[in-house]
C-alpha cells in the first residue's frame, strides 16, 4: 500500500478470489482505491484484469473475499444494486442497446440514475430534464450530431464513445474503464483519453483503468497496479512500477518490445 | 388520427407532448397515413356496429374483436416489448373468465358478484404471475417458456377436473346482472332504429373497457418503465449494469400483462354469458394470439388492433366466403374442393405464412415503412 491510500477508500477489495474449477483467475487481491486518483491496472493477457472488474461490478460472484464501496460491503449484491451504490463500468467489448438511438441509450442511463424507471403512467418524453441531461452528455463525448443514429449503424470509435457516454451519464463515484481505446483508430484515441482525463480533473472521481498502451498508462495514471496470473504483483508510483524488475519480466518487457 | 402532425423519426425525442390525442395515445402516434386511417376505421366501426348491422352475429364478432385487441395487446407487451415468450397467457385469460362465471353462477347475478369475481381473478392472476416470474425469469428464456407451458397445461387440466367448481368440460352458463340482460330496456323507444337493450349495454361495456385497457397498455409501453422493458429486450446484461433490476422489471411486465389478459377474459365471459375451456383456456387460443401479434406487428401495440380485427374477421367470415366461392365454382373439377369451407384453416395458415414472409415487421411495420409520414 502506498501513502496515498490512508484516507477512506472509495472502493476496496479484500482478499478477492475466484476459482473456475482448479484455475484461480483472481487470487487474493487486496487493494484500496482513493477518491480523486486514477489507477491503471496492467498485466499480460489472461492476467485476470477483466475478471477482477467483473468481480467488482458483480457480473461474477467471488469465491471468497469482499468488495467494499464507501465503507459498505457489497459482495452479495446484484450488478444493478452495485450500480446504484456508485459503481460505474464501461465494457471492453462494446455493450450497448443496438436498436435504440444513441440518445435513447444515454437517456436510459440518465433515467436509471434519476430512479425514474418505475414510473408507469407518465409518457417518457414528459421528463424533458432527463432528455436534456442525455443531450448534454452526448455533447460532451462529441456525438451530439449522431444522437438519432442507432449504435449498430455507428463506427466502432463512435460506439466506444457512446459506451463512455453511458458511464458519464450514470455519474458514478467509481469509474471503471476496461480498455476504452481498444480497436480504435489512432486519431480517435485522443478524444477518449481527454474524456477520461476530464473525468479525473472534475471533482473527486475514482478512476480504474485497464489499459494495454503503456504511453497512455504513463501519462494518465497516478498509480499502477500489476496483475499477473491473477495475483497483485506490483503496486505504486507509475515510474517506480514500470521500472521494477518484476514488471519488466512479467509484462512490460514483452509490451515494450512490441511498442 | 389523420390530422396529427407528421413525425419524422421513430424516436423523435425533441417533440413536445401536447394535444388531447397525443396525450391519449401517449405520444405514440400511428406514424403512417394508411395506418391512421385503418385504425380510425376499426374504432369507428366497432363503436357503431350495433347501429350499422342487424342480427346478433356482427355484434358478437365485434365484441370478440374488442376482447382480443386487449388480449393480444397485453401479449405484445410481453413478447414485443419485453422479449418474453410465455405460453401461459390463455391461463390468465381463463382465470378472468372463470372468475366472472363462478361468481355470477355460484353467488348471484349481480354487479357485486361481477366485482368480487373480477377482483379475485385479478388477485389470483397477479399471484401466479409473480410466482412464475420470480421463480423462472432468472433462468434462460427457453426454460421460462417451458415452465409457462407446463403451468398453463396444469391449469387447463385443473379447470376440467374440478368440475364441481368450474363445470368441467361443459363450462359454466350464467345469468348476467339485470341491466345487461336482453330483456332490459334503457329507453322505451328505439334510438336510430335500434332498441337500447341490455345486450347493447353489454356490448358497450366490452367496448369501453377494452378501449380504456388498450390505452392504458399503450401508456405503459411508452412510459419510462416501458422504455426499460425495451432496453432489457435489447441487452439484458447492459440494462442490469445500468442499474435496472432485470428480474423485477420482467416480473412487473408479466404481472401487468396477466392482469390485462384477466380483464379480457372477464369481458369475454360477460359477453358470452358462458365460460368454458374452449372459449378462454384452450391452447388453440394461445396459438391464435401468437398469430395475431405476429401478423399485426410485434412491439407496436397498434399491431394488436389490426391483427385481432383481421384474424377474428377471417375466423368468422372466411368460412362463409369460401362456402359461397365453393358453391359458385360447382361443376369445375378440383377447385370447389380446394376452397370448401372445411379447408378454411388451411387457407388461414397459408395467409399467415405469406404475411410473415412478405411483412416480417407485421402489417404495422409494413405500413410505417411504406409511408413514414402520418
UniProtKB/TrEMBL annotation, chain A:
PROSITE patterns tied to this protein: ABC_TRANSPORTER_1, ABC_TRANSPORTER_2
Residue ranges of every copy of the ABC transporter domain listed in the record: 11-254
One GO cellular component term: plasma membrane
InterPro entries recorded: AAA+_ATPase, ABC_AA/LPS_Transport, ABC_transporter-like_ATP-bd, ABC_transporter-like_CS, BCA_ABC_TP_C, P-loop_NTPase
Protein name: Branched-chain amino acid transport system ATP-binding protein
Molecular function terms from GO: ATP binding; ATP hydrolysis activity
Keyword Nucleotide-binding applies: yes
Automatic annotation (TrEMBL), chain B:
GO MF annotation terms: branched-chain amino acid transmembrane transporter activity
Pfam families: BPD_transp_2
Lipid bilayer topology: Multi-pass membrane protein
InterPro entries: ABC_transp_permease, LivM-like
Location within or outside the cell: Cell membrane
Transmembrane segments: 34-53, 85-104, 110-135, 142-162, 201-221, 242-271, 283-313, 320-339, 345-365
Domain of life (superkingdom): Bacteria
Keyword set, alphabetical order: Cell membrane, Membrane, Transmembrane, Transmembrane helix
Any one GO cellular component localisation term in the record: plasma membrane
First-listed, main subcellular location of the protein, grouped into a coarse class: membrane
Listed name of the protein: Branched-chain amino acid transport system permease protein
Organism this protein belongs to: Microvirga lupini
Upper taxonomic lineage: Bacteria, Pseudomonadati, Pseudomonadota, Alphaproteobacteria, Hyphomicrobiales
Amino acid at each position: 500500500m502506498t501513502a496515498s491510500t490512508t484516507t477512506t477508500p472509495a472502493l476496496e477489495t479484500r482478499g478477492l478470489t475466484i476459482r473456475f474449477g482448479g484455475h484461480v483467475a483472481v487470487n487474493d487481491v487486496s487493494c484500496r482505491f482513493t477518491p480523486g486518483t486514477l489507477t491503471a491496472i496492467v498485466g499480460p493477457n489472461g492476467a485476470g484484469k477483466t475478471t477482477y472488474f467483473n468481480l467488482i461490478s458483480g457480473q461474477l460472484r467471488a469465491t471468497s473475499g469482499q468488495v467494499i464501496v464507501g465503507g459498505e460491503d457489497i459482495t452479495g449484491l446484484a450488478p444493478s444494486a452495485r450500480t446504484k451504490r456508485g459503481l460505474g463500468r464501461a465494457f471492453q467489448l462494446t455493450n450497448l442497446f443496438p436498436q435504440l438511438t444513441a440518445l435513447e441509450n444515454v437517456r436510459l442511463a440518465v433515467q436509471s440514475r434519476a430512479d425514474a424507471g418505475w414510473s408507469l403512467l407518465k409518457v417518457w418524453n414528459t421528463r424533458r430534464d432527463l432528455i436534456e441531461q442525455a443531450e448534454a452528455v452526448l455533447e460532451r463525448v462529441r456525438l451530439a450530431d449522431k444522437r438519432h443514429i442507432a449504435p449498430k449503424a455507428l463506427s466502432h470509435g463512435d460506439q466506444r464513445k457512446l459506451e463512455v457516454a453511458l458511464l458519464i451519464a450514470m455519474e458514478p463515484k467509481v469509474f471503471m474503464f476496461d480498455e476504452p481505446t481498444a480497436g480504435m483508430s489512432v486519431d480517435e484515441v485522443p478524444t477518449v483519453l481527454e474524456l477520461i482525463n476530464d473525468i479525473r480533473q472534475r471533482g473527486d472521481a475514482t478512476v480504474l483503468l485497464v489499459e494495454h498502451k503503456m504511453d497512455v498508462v504513463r501519462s494518465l495514471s497516478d498509480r499502477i497496479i500489476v496483475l499477473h496470473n491473477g495475483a497483485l504483483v506490483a503496486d505504486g508510483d507509475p515510474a517506480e512500477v514500470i521500472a521494477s524488475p518484476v514488471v519488466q519480466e512479467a509484462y512490460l518487457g514483452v509490451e515494450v518490445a512490441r511498442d | 388520427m389523420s390530422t396529427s402532425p407528421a413525425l419524422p423519426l421513430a424516436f423523435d425525442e425533441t417533440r413536445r407532448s401536447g394535444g388531447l390525442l397525443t396525450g391519449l395515445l401517449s405520444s405514440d402516434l400511428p406514424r403512417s397515413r394508411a395506418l391512421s386511417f385503418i385504425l380510425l376505421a376499426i374504432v369507428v366501426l366497432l363503436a357503431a356496429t350495433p347501429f350499422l348491422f342487424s342480427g346478433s352475429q356482427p355484434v358478437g364478432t365485434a365484441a370478440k374483436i374488442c376482447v382480443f385487441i386487449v388480449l393480444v395487446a397485453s401479449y405484445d407487451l410481453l413478447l414485443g416489448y419485453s422479449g418474453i415468450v410465455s405460453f401461459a397467457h390463455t391461463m390468465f385469460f381463463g382465470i378472468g373468465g372463470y372468475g366472472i362465471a363462478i361468481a355470477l353462477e355460484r353467488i348471484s347475478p349481480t354487479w357485486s358478484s361481477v366485482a368480487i369475481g373480477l377482483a379475485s381473478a385479478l388477485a389470483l392472476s397477479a399471484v401466479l404471475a409473480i410466482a412464475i416470474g420470480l421463480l423462472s425469469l432468472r433462468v434462460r428464456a427457453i426454460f421460462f417458456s417451458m415452465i409457462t407451458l407446463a403451468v398453463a397445461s396444469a391449469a387447463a387440466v385443473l379447470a376440467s377436473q374440478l368440475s364441481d367448481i368450474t363445470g368441467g368440460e361443459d363450462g359454466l352458463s350464467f345469468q348476467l346482472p339485470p341491466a345487461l340482460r336482453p330483456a332490459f330496456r334503457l329507453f322505451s323507444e328505439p334510438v336510430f332504429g335500434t332498441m337500447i337493450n341490455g345486450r347493447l349495454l353489454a356490448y358497450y361495456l366490452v367496448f369501453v373497457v377494452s378501449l380504456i385497457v388498450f390505452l392504458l397498455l399503450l401508456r405503459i409501453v411508452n412510459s419510462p418503465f416501458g422504455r426499460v422493458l425495451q432496453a432489457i429486450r435489447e441487452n439484458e446484461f447492459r440494462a442490469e449494469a445500468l442499474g435496472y433490476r432485470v428480474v423485477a422489471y420482467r416480473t412487473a411486465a408479466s404481472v401487468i400483462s396477466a392482469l390485462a389478459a384477466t380483464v379480457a377474459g372477464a369481458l369475454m365471459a360477460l359477453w358470452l354469458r358462458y365460460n368454458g375451456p374452449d372459449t378462454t383456456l384452450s391452447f388453440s387460443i394461445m396459438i391464435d394470439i401468437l398469430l395475431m401479434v405476429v401478423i399485426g406487428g410485434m412491439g407496436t401495440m397498434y399491431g394488436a388492433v389490426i391483427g385481432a380485427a383481421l384474424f377474428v374477421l377471417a375466423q368468422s367470415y372466411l368460412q362463409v366466403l369460401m362456402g359461397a366461392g365453393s358453391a359458385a365454382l360447382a361443376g369445375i373439377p378440383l377447385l370447389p374442393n380446394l376452397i370448401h369451407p372445411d379447408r378454411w384453416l388451411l387457407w388461414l395458415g397459408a395467409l399467415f405464412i405469406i404475411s410473415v414472409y412478405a411483412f416480417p415487421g407485421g402489417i404495422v411495420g409494413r405500413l410505417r415503412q411504406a409511408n413514414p409520414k402520418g
